[in-house]
Automatic annotation (TrEMBL):
<protein>
    <recommendedName>
        <fullName>F-box domain-containing protein</fullName>
    </recommendedName>
</protein>
<dbReference type="InterPro" id="IPR032675">
    <property type="entry name" value="LRR_dom_sf"/>
</dbReference>
Length: 495
């Protein structure tokens, strides 16, 4: 570098922000400008406190200028419970009080932390800058913490305490005591600001009052491990909801008749609640659902949903419910994965469902089918041609189709060598499903589909197997007619 070359502060600042933490620590010792700028860079990354050593390092780093650097902290994660010496606790309280630009707080062991460090909880509650709060292992102390908070929160993740039993039942709560802890009344102080809520392990009361709180800015809701949730309280409280994700304790596996019966009864109740004369109606602007088919069935929504992505694979027992759910949702985008029952079901195969009114608005489809042992005699070629015929009736613009041969002629075992597996695979006769998949002409499929669907401008078809011989065909999107992928682009590809 030539002597006398001067770098202005903007360039020096870029150097600091492009450096890692260790380099920034070295820069801090080099000049007064970096003393501030490199410290900002270090504290821009999340500050994680997991043990006493982390706390000592933080105290030492923030100690200059009476902890003034604390104002640069943006994200703080607390994953520890402390019995601190009084001097250190006061110092940490002072530090938290000066975190005036802290935006995101995560407390991993909420009840334990608030019990062991109530004064630190008070210091955090007094902040006014927080916008995002995540609390895991929440309980009654967390509820008190919420009441004391002074920040206008935009996003909340609230995960109630894990237990082998229902935590709420363990507290001896009846329905009347549960109701105030429902997310709608519990978080009422953030009615005007809250945009996103993730609530996990809140167990529904069998009867709930009609909550009057309304959250006009709430657009994203995720409900996890909630036993048979009631839809009406959420619809009434969050009228402008755009994105919904549901994951109950029952949604992934409803094989037993008693579970199916309970699901049907709960679904009927949710539908009745929406359609009742004094009910909340249904959502008017729901753009996206991500979750299992059974969970959407449980929720019993009667509204249109623009984008639907099922997070679990479908089998024969899911296809009749799929038809019922799509009849209400009428999506423009659908993402489905499942076994070969999607093609082979006698009355509710996907080619049949795609001809029903629930699929009439479909413009984008992601479909993955795994051929399984149960349907090894399926004529896959004929089934795929039937699928193409159904697709030709839709206003389809974008397609992702993947067919995977999961018919393994050699059982998986550690003691079988690769060479032996290859030999056994080669000598084992092909099943009918494998033969018909191998002989199916994917080029003809693409050509006929394109002729039948002038709207189709973006399509990929992958045939995986059988036993090698993979094939891929693609229609490259034309820029002027590209399908606009709203929301998360991952919805539009295979998981």
């Amino acid at each position: 570098m030539p002597r006398g070359l001067a770098l202005n502060f903007d360039i020096l600042r870029e150097i600091a922000w492009s450096s890692d933490r260790q380099t920034c620590a070295t820069l801090i010792r080099s000049c007064r400008f970096f003393y501030q700028e490199a410290a900002k860079r270090i504290l821009h990354d999340p500050v994680n406190l997991s043990n006493d050593s982390d706390m000592v390092k933080l105290l030492r780093f923030l100690q200059p200028d009476h902890y003034a650097r604390a104002r640069y902290v943006r994200t703080l994660r607390l994953n520890v419970t402390w019995r601190l010496p009084r001097q250190d606790q006061r110092a940490l309280e002072d530090i938290i009080a000066q975190m005036t630009q802290l935006k995101h707080l995560r407390i991993d062991r909420g009840e334990d932390f608030l019990k062991s460090s109530p004064s630190l909880g008070n210091a955090l509650a007094n902040l006014t800058s927080l916008r995002q709060l995540d609390v895991f292992y929440a309980g009654s102390l967390t509820c008190n913490f919420f009441k004391a908070m002074k920040s206008d929160l935009v996003s909340i993740s609230l995960h109630w305490m894990d237990s082998k039993e229902d935590w709420f039942a363990e507290q001896g709560m009846d329905d009347e005591k549960w109701s105030p802890i429902h997310p709608v009344p519990l978080l009422a102080k953030w009615c005007s600001s809250l945009e996103e809520l993730n609530c996990k392990r809140w167990y529904i009361a069998s009867k709930l009052p009609t909550f009057t709180e309304v959250y006009p800015s709430m657009h994203r809701l995720k409900v996890e491990h909630d036993d048979f949730p009631l839809a009406a309280p959420y619809i009434r409280a969050y009228p402008n909801l755009a994105r919904l994700s549901v994951s109950t304790n029952y949604g992934s596996d409803l094989r037993y008749p008693e579970d199916r019966q309970r699901l049907h009864e709960h679904r009927s109740r949710n539908i009745r609640d929406q359609e009742a004369e004094d009910g909340p109606g249904t959502w008017q602007h729901l753009e996206e659902y991500v979750g299992s088919l059974a969970d959407l069935e449980i929720f019993g929504l009667t509204c249109h949903i623009s984008r639907v992505m099922f997070s679990t694979e479908l089998s024969d027992r899911h296809l009749e419910p799929l038809s019922a759910v799509l009849a209400y949702a009428k999506p423009t985008h659908l993402n489905v994965e499942g076994d070969s029952a999607l093609l082979a079901h006698s009355s509710h195969s996907l080619p049949v469902i795609l001809r029903e009114s629930g699929s009439s608005r479909l413009e984008s489809l992601v479909l993955r089918i795994c051929l399984c042992e149960e349907h090894k005699e399926l004529d896959v070629g004929a089934a795929l041609n039937a699928l193409a015929s159904a697709l030709a009736q839709l206003p389809l613009r974008r397609l992702r189709l993947r067919v995977v041969s999961c018919l393994d002629p050699v059982p998986s075992a550690r003691w079988i060598s690769i060479r032996h597996r290859v030999y056994e695979t080669r000598k084992t006769p092909f099943a009918h499903a494998e033969n018909t998949l191998r002989d199916w002409d994917v080029d003809v499929f693409m050509h006929e589909l394109r002729d039948a669907l002038p709207s189709l401008t973006d399509a990929k078809v992958d045939i995986i197997g059988p036993r090698g011989g993979d094939r891929r065909r693609e229609i490259v999107p034309e820029h002027a007619h590209r399908f606009i992928m709203s929301g998360d682009t991952r919805l539009y590809e295979f998981r």
